[in-house]
């Protein structure tokens, strides 16, 4: 987490919150894509929102107990709220998200950045 933002590293802004603490998540990097995996058991597609605000990926989710839920722990309400600082190399316009079997998968394409170096004369 001590690397610079523009080297392709995603940094958390806030962590998950909820009835039982932070939800599990994982991240994979390669030169073309960043993949994120969030465990969101019990949340339906309509209960999760993924958005980009400036240079930040925002993930919010609200679970409300539904009629007929057979609950062992009987948690009636839980919410998830996290944000991740996106590196400059991310293609924000083409981020994709998919919810499958209680797992939120997010794919963030990486674009090649050309770095411009300017030498500063020391006086």
TrEMBL record:
CDD domains hit by this protein: ACD_sHsps-like
Domain of life: Eukaryota
Transmembrane regions: none
PROSITE patterns listed in its UniProt record: SHSP
Gene3D superfamilies per record: 2.60.40.790
Any coiled-coil regions, as ranges: none
GO BP, sorted A to Z: response to heat
Pfam families tied to this protein: HSP20
Domain SHSP: 16-123
Keywords: Stress response
Family: Belongs to the small heat shock protein (HSP20) family.
Protein name: Small heat shock protein, chloroplastic
Native source species: Theobroma cacao
């Amino acid at each position: 987490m001590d690397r610079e933002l523009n080297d392709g590293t995603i940094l958390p802004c806030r962590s998950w919150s909820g009835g039982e603490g932070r939800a599990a998540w994982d991240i994979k990097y390669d030169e073309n894509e960043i993949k994120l995996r969030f465990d969101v058991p019990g949340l339906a597609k309509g209960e999760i929102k993924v958005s980009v605000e400036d240079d930040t990926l925002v993930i919010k989710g609200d679970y409300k107990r539904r009629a007929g839920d057979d609950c062992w722990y009987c948690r009636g309400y839980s919410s998830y709220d996290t944000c991740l600082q996106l590196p400059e190399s991310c293609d924000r316009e083409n981020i994709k998200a998919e919810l499958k079997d209680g797992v939120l998968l997010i794919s963030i394409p990486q674009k090649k950045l050309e770095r411009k170096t300017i030498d500063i004369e020391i006086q």
